[in-house]
């Protein structure tokens, strides 16, 4: 009995995430494509893997057993690849680094240029996203994360602690400082989902009712440009906001909205790969704060 491993991956990601939409996002495919692949796997195996309901999919008992078997197969395949990669002794080749928009634009370009000067045979791929990247399934070789990873198979190194402050133009910040507390409405440029930002600001002592979300974007670069236009305040790491000429601390420099740790992460097997170890150690040295 033969089946296409891509069909199996579509089924696994759907079972693990709980929906075709989430699986399609992970696989960088369309939802109909994922659905067709699951149907193809069911046909190849001759069994029903999911019960289809109006509100979603539920694994059948046979589907649950297939999930366990395929997860074991996937782990063996990934381990084999990682062992093979770990045996390489050359700096030449590709290293994929998963980073946030801020890191990709403001922190890494000069370091990548330096890396290429030291080792011209290196090719760096940046996977830019503010969402979590799965190193276990080898979406990237190295990641810079702004939370402590909890996967046991990852090697992690703390790069430092970041302080996040509100920044705005001088005229806007001056107007806010001079306004009466009972009249103060604080214009905020935030992410599309505002609940987390609202909670952070509330925890820092800013009343929820005083917040006025004037513009929302999941692109941090657009948030910065909007803030430069004086539309509102933006949350930025203190080291970055203080270097942008058009922006200044909205309150005092010592007033942090919140702090977070930054971590450099890679898979434990890849740590023995000379090329990835070289890039990992270089970034650890240059990015430590």
Short summary of the structure?
The chain has 289 residues and is α/β, with parallel strands linked by helices. It is built from eleven helices and eleven strands. It folds into three domains: 5-86, Arc Repressor Mutant, subunit A; 93-160 and 261-287, D-Maltodextrin-Binding Protein, domain 2; 163-259, Periplasmic binding protein-like II (D-Maltodextrin-Binding Protein, domain 2).
Topology summary:
Layout: H1 5-17, H2 20-27, H3 31-45, E1 50-53, E2 56-59, H4 61-86, E3 93-99, H5 101-107, H6 109-118, E4 122-128, E5 142-145, E6 154-168, H7 170-178, E7 186-190, H8 195-203, E8 211-216, H9 220-228, E9 233-237, H10 238-241, E10 248-249, E11 258-267, H11 274-287
Parallel strand pairs: 3-4, 3-5, 7-8, 7-9
Antiparallel strand pairs: 1-2, 5-11, 6-9, 6-10, 6-11
Helix pairs in contact: 1-2, 1-3, 2-3
Structure characterization notes:
The protein is 43% helix and 24% strand. The protein is globular and about 75 Å long. β7, α8 (195-203) and β8 (211-216) form a beta-alpha-beta unit. It has 3 domains: 5-86, Winged helix-like DNA-binding domain superfamily/Winged helix DNA-binding domain (Arc Repressor Mutant, subunit A); 93-160 and 261-287, Periplasmic binding protein-like II (D-Maltodextrin-Binding Protein, domain 2, 3-Layer(aba) Sandwich); 163-259, 3-Layer(aba) Sandwich (D-Maltodextrin-Binding Protein, domain 2). The strands form 2 sheets. Strands 3, 4, 5, 6, 7, 8, 9, 10 and 11 form a 9-stranded mixed beta sheet that branches. It is an alpha/beta fold and 289 residues long.
